Amino acid sequence: MHAAKPLFDYPKYWAECFAPAPFLPMSREEMERLGWDSCDIVIVTGDAYVDHPSFGMAIIGRLLEAQGFRVGIISQPDWRSKDDFMRLGRPNLFFGVAAGNMDSMINRYTADRKIRSDDAYTPGGLAGKRPDRASLVYSQRCKEAWSEVPVVLGGIEASLRRIAHYDYWQDKVRRSILMDATADLLLFGNAERAVVEVAHRLAAGERIESLTDIRGSAFVRRDAPEGWFEIDSTRIDRPGKIDRIANPYVNTQDLEACALERARGEPDDPQAARPVELLPHPKLSRERTVVRLPSFEKLRNDPVLYAHASRVLHQETNPGNARALVQRHDNLDVWLNPPPIPLTTEEMDYVFGLPYARVPHPAYGGERIPAYEMIRFSVNIMRGCFGGCTFCSITEHEGRIIQNRSEESILREIEEIRDRVPGFTGVISDLGGPTANMYRLACKSRRIEAACRKPSCVWPGICDNLNTDHSALIHLYRSARDLPGVKKILIASGLRYDLAVESPEYVRELVTHHVGGYLKIAPEHTEQGPLSKMMKPGIGSYDRFKKLFDKYSKEAGKEQYLIPYFIAAHPGTSDADMMNLALWLKRNDFRADQVQAFYPSPMATATAMYHSGRDPLHKVTYKSDAVTIVKSERQRRLHKAFLRWHDPQNWPLLREALKEMGRSDLIGNGKQQLIPACQPQSDGYHSVRRKNSTPTAGKKTGKPLLTQHTGLPPQGQDGNPWDKRERAKAAAEARRKASQGKPAKGDKPGKRPPAPR
Questions:
Q1: Which positions in this protein are listed as binding [4Fe-4S] cluster (predicted)?
Q2: φ and ψ at 605, to 5 degrees?
Q3: Which residues contribute to the annotated binding site for [4Fe-4S] cluster?
Q4: What phi, psi does 198 have (nearest 5°)?
């Protein structure tokens, strides 16, 4: 692994003489109270400003402040003109632009491309406070305000659009966001290391155009610089039959490049895909090698080449061995440096130990910000994910090397929450991160880790080189429980159960002390077809974990339930796969309250499958087997209907589909059949739904409802999203019995039960 300059080793900028601000200023009046005449850096964000380490603008802003810079925040500006972007004056160094904690398109549109009615990152949960593709729009407005001020893009939206990418909402391949946003530099991944270097080098007088050697950055240039060796990506991983013309990407300064490559394959098929071994060059190193991906123009018209480019990009994501990438857009190149070096534990402690106020900015007047309410009593203990699930972009953004905080730093934050955060009742809602149980898990060998190109450490099975010892996490849980004033520590982040079963002691600790009645896990499916395209373990891992979960729950004298999440319409999923999943749900008496359909987010491997119909997890050729793709509206509705097999509104569609599939035997009132043969005569929905709904919580409780997989902590008292609903149902049932058999209000046919208070 390459060495990197620690975040705290930079000499402080002159403005360090100003004390840390109570909040980073959002107005000129606040700047004047702080004694500032200008800002060195202005951060523009699509989220409400919450000064908390779970919000990107707060982390970057406080980090730059700690480096001695004056940082202002422009939160959710009116993007229809440049006026709002000028409210803090001209920044001395640069604008930092991000769409927010979520991609603006995913934030606004559902998986069915319908507009959402709310926005969790906006005061009052109001929708419409940010534009589509917010990073792009904000960048353009910053340039309109002050064309000479550099614009640096960051955040997950820009990170996942740093290269030509399939856009689900327009159903086409779009250019790199750098080509449309008029930004000068893009920082991808967790950008603390890169943004600190950018700030100090600009402050030292360097021009933004000269910052071409920073890891984790992307920029536009016209030609490859002197001294670089260029490799065509199709020579590393041939996509199959290609045009027999001169390679337009060959670096004319290195015409002997062909002599450095040796192809292997079947000699009788000149068009066959051949793996290539690159021989060492005596003068060139990996650090001076760039891989040229097919151009935007080629990817736009060739889905197979798009899958090939996605495969190569994901192979170049390990900071220990990744090479630079370059992609032509018309007559310009988008250049991507290798990904950033992960933060050390000391650096993570430094970042999370900055003087956050831990509450929203006072300008919001105490108005509720739903995303903050979800995380205000939670603690992030690590970053990164080595799971590599193809539908998820965490690995593409945060990397697959886990970055851990020290136990001391985590306990200190819990104490801060206890002592400073309003409304704390003694319950920590989560100790987690992208996953609940990857804390301090890593490759046993640094040398192997730096050389590895596997997309996942746990698929198709757990790698022999992966340390799965959960003892550090167990010790952390116990230490956190022992803190004075802490009554309960809940775990709300998604659990990687295939790792958990490797440590039964961890499962015992979790189940005995840290489950608030329900624990969410994500098998995502039961059938091998879709699971192999998701890079998820088989349902047998879920069964093994459930046995341990039930065993230790019983030993603890607790009635607790697993909440498994499933995805409909994922690439590789057939109608028969969804039917088998529905049968599994019925056998296990699970009734999904809400379901999630596959959402093709930019740069995810599953999105490349969705667009191309090929599987980038294996070598991509024009003769590769096609992947089953679910695109039509009817088929997507059908797959979601199978997940909600118990809903009478879905029965007509399911009957029709089962007949088409030749499975009419599953229609009827038998125990082994999926749906009834007849539809209820009245609207029938509420009466049948009451019969099939979850029983009241208590000794005779049945299976809980499933809920939508949002990746956010569960809501409700003690982290339980079903408390209010179940209490309301119990009260209604008690009132009905007390009224001597008279139907309770809301039980009459055709009327909905009253909403719980």
A1: 385, 389, 392
A2: -60, -40
A3: 385, 389, 392
A4: -60, -45
Please give the Cα distance from 543 to 566 (Å, whole number). 15
Tokens of 360: 């929203």
Cα distance between residue 295 and residue 173, in whole Å: 12
Taking the CB of residue 298, how many other CB atoms lie within 10 A of it?
Answer: 17
- The mean pLDDT value of the chain amounts to 86
Integer Cα distance of 184 and 579 in angstroms: 50
Cα–Cα distance for residue pair 346/354, rounded to 1 Å: 13
- Strand, helix or coil for residue 433: coil
Q: Is the pLDDT at 666 greater than 70, yes or no? A: yes
Whether cis (ω within 30° of 0) applies to the bond prior to 460 is: yes
**Cα separation values, 563 from 513, 520, 732, Å:** 17, 4, 25
Q: Which residue has the tokens 């290609």?
A: 242
| β-sheet bridge partners, residue 379 | 431
Separation CA 314–CA 750 (nearest Å)? 53
* Measured CA distances, 196 to 63, 191, 544 (Å): 8, 8, 46
Q: Which tokens belong to 186?
A: 């893009």
Q: Which residue has the tokens 């059908």?
A: 638
Q: Are 579 and 587 in contact (CB under 8 A)?
A: no
**Phi, psi torsion values for 645, nearest 5 degrees:** -60, -25
From CA 19, how far away is CA 351, in angstroms rounded? 17
Going by pLDDT thresholds of 50, 70 and 90, the confidence category of residue 649 is: very high
Extract the tokens encoding 508.
Answer: 């015992």
Per-residue pLDDT at 114 exceeds 70 = yes
679, 652 contact by CB (below 8 A):
yes
pLDDT score of 464: 95
How far is Cα 439 from Cα 479, in angstroms, rounded to an integer? 15
List of long-range contacts for 280-283, beta carbons under 8 Å, 24+ apart: 281/229
Hey, what are 749's tokens? Answer: 């046919």
- Helix-helix angle 504-513:539-555, to 10 degrees: 50
- One-letter amino acid at 41 equals I
List the structure tokens of 723. Answer: 């408390």
Structure tokens, 728: 């309301």
pTM, 2 dp: 0.85
pLDDT of 391 > 90? The answer is yes
Q: Are 55 and 7 in contact, with CB atoms under 8 Å apart? A: no
CA 329 to CA 597: how far, in whole Å?
33
Q: Which of 108-117, 244-253, 297-306, 712-721 has the lowest mean pLDDT?
A: 712-721
Q: Which two tokens stand for residue 153?
A: 């893009």
Q: Are strands 71-75 and 41-45 parallel, antiparallel or unpaired?
A: parallel
Judge if the upstream peptide bond of residue 275 is cis by omega within 30 degrees of 0: no
Domains present along the chain, CATH in parentheses: 7-220 (3.40.50.2300), 229-330 (no CATH)
Residue-level pLDDT at 750: 37
Taking 90 as the threshold, does the pLDDT of residue 540 lie above it?
A: yes
C-alpha to C-alpha distances, 356 to 11, 154, 398, 431, nearest whole angstrom: 22, 21, 22, 18
Contact 512, 451 (CB under 8 A): no
SS3 347: helix
Three-state DSSP at 75 gives strand
- DSSP tag of 594: S
Q: Could you tell me which residues are annotated as the binding site?
A: 385, 389, 392
Of the pLDDT bands very low, low, confident and very high (cuts 50, 70, 90), residue 706 is very low
3-state secondary structure of 198: helix
d(CA 551, CA 631): 42
Per-residue three-class SS string for 119-180: CCCCHHHCCCCCCCCHHHHHHHHHHHHCCCCCEEECHHHHHCCCCCEEECCCCEEECCHHHH
Burial environment of residue 157 by CB neighbours within 10 A (0 to 12, 13 to 18, 19 or more): buried
- In the numeric block, the tokens 């760039």 are attached to 290
Question: What percent of the chain has a predicted confidence (pLDDT) above 90?
Answer: 77
Q: 3-class SS at 283?
A: coil
Whether the Cβ atoms of residue 467 and residue 438 lie closer than 8 Å to each other: no
